[in-house]
């Protein structure tokens, strides 16, 4: 690949997906220059269509009032149906196995209430050491709720000494070693700090082989990589939609429940909106769950919060996840090439294996830990938006919906200048 900015621009001109960039709002510097935005792993850019879709819902509210539940352009009662099908396409499952609702942590708490049922010696939960704090907090709360002892009943698997990444063989070994005591494995699709992607089907098989259930946090995975959830036999999964799904700050999350659990006697925390729609408005005394994952709903969705997700999912459908993945792989290869040539003092933590990573790259900056922060400040001054995690990691996502090869080139050039300055 070309090592010049003109060459990067030429690659963008040849990219069939490049016009999608114009369908997103682009941040600018204080001087009015467009930023190089590589922070989709934290907050995706705003689809321009979101403004019109949100305005349409406000107009329906103004025009119809309560009648909008049935007569809005997208009736509010069944609003999640418009989201379930395109979301299921991204996740590789059936629409009735998906529901968009709440936030990620709330959904995780709800599904842990159903899928973590300790009995006898089978009480332990296996997670990654260094899991995203919300996941650890949720797991700890459920262990305590059931009277378990977190010091012994929480298993946190760390990378081997001297390594940044967790080997899937070590997950399997941990399950084989302690399988009769493990009730649940909760694992990320993509690890938030390192950008490592996992073979979730392999982990689910290993969990099921010892009698445990497998749940996944897809916050950094959905919209980033193809994940065939149903074929991978996950029991459940949760995610947010403000990262790669571009639904806005604090946007609605979602959950997946495998169909084998639809008719089980598994307990759940319930609410009126999870009742079967056919009789929901009869205000029945007894709860009868709606079909599929929709039966795990507790409250109705915020239509105003969901409208931007409609805009974003339409773009995913137009682009196609497979084409987006191919572009993501090409951007990653170009990134690796330039980093090796221009900033050899930076260590890439993210796996070299394309199958084991998505769009995010995590870079460890040599030297004093505060040097990474100074490098980030230098990038920001130069109009590059990425982020930093203590003590010395800079994270950048090459999001194929709106990033191109010139973004990669500009990032590496500005990183080299910021390193020299720091």
Structure description:
The protein folds into two domains: 5-34 and 321-421, Aspartate Aminotransferase, domain 1, CATH 3.90.1150.10; 54-317, 3-Layer(aba) Sandwich (Aspartate Aminotransferase, domain 2). The protein has helices at 5-14, 49-64, 68-71, 79-91, 104-115, 133-145, 150-153, 168-178, 200-209, 277-280, 303-319, 321-342, 369-381, 405-421, and strands at residues 36-37, 98-101, 124-128, 154-157, 182-188, 213-217, 236-239, 253-257, 346-348, 360-365, 384-385, 387-389, 393-397. The protein is of the alpha/beta class and 422 residues long. Helix 1 (5-14) packs antiparallel against helix 14 (405-421) and helix 12 (321-342) runs parallel beside helix 14. It is globular, with a radius of gyration of 22 Å. The strands form three sheets. A seven-stranded mixed beta sheet has the order 2-8-7-6-5-3-4, with helices on both faces. Strands 9-10-13-12 form a four-stranded antiparallel beta sheet. Strand 5, helix 9 and strand 6 form a beta-alpha-beta unit. The chain starts with a helix and ends with a helix. The protein is built from 14 helices and 13 strands.
What does the average pLDDT come to?
A: 95
Shape, per Cα inertia axes: globular
Give the distance, in angstroms, between the N- and C-terminal Cα atoms.
Answer: 29 Å
CATH class of the largest domain: Alpha Beta
Total domain count: 2
What name does CATH use for the topology of the largest domain?
Answer: Aspartate Aminotransferase, domain 2
* CATH structural architecture of the largest domain: 3-Layer(aba) Sandwich
């Amino acid at each position: 690949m070309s090592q010049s900015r003109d060459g990067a621009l030429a690659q963008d001109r040849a990219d069939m997906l490049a016009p999608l960039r114009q369908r997103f709002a682009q941040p600018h510097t204080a001087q009015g220059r467009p930023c190089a935005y590589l922070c989709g792993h934290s907050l995706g850019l705003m689809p321009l269509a979101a403004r019109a879709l949100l305005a349409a819902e406000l107009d329906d509210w103004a025009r119809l009032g309560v009648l909008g539940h049935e007569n809005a352009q997208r009736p509010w009662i069944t609003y999640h149906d418009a989201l379930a099908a395109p979301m299921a396409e991204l996740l590789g499952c059936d629409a009735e196995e998906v529901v968009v609702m709440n936030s990620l942590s709330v959904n995780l708490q709800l599904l842990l209430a159903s899928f973590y049922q300790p009995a006898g010696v089978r009480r332990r939960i296996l997670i990654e050491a260094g899991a995203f704090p919300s996941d650890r907090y949720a797991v700890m709360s459920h262990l305590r709720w059931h009277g378990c002892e977190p010091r012994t009943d929480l298993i946190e698997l760390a990378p081997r000494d001297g390594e940044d990444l967790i080997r899937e063989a070590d997950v399997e070994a941990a399950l084989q070693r302690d399988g009769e005591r493990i009730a649940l494995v909760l694992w990320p699709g993509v690890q938030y700090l390192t950008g490592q992607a996992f073979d979730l089907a392999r982990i689910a098989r290993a969990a099921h082989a010892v009698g445990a259930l497998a749940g996944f946090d897809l916050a950094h995975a959905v919209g980033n990589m193809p994940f065939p959830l149903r074929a991978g036999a996950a029991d459940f999964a949760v995610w947010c939609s403000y990262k790669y799904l571009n639904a806005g700050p604090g946007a609605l999350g979602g959950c997946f429940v495998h169909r084998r659990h639809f008719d089980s006697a598994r307990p759940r925390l319930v609410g009126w909106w999870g009742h079967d729609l056919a009789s929901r408005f009869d205000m029945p005394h007894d709860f009868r769950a709606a079909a599929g994952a929709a039966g795990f709903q507790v409250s109705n969705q915020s239509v105003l919060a969901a409208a931007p997700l409609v805009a974003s999912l339409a773009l995913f459908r137009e682009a196609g996840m497979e084409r987006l993945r191919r572009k993501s792989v090409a951007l990653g290869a170009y990134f690796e090439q330039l980093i090796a040539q221009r900033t050899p003092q930076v260590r890439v933590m993210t796996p070299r294996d394309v199958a084991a990573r998505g769009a995010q790259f995590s870079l460890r900056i040599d030297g004093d830990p505060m040097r990474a922060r100074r490098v980030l400040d230098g990038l920001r001054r130069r109009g590059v938006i990425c982020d930093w995690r203590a003590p010395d990691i800079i994270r950048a996502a090459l999001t194929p919906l709106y990033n191109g090869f010139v973004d990669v080139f500009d990032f590496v050039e500005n990183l080299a200048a910021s390193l020299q300055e720091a």
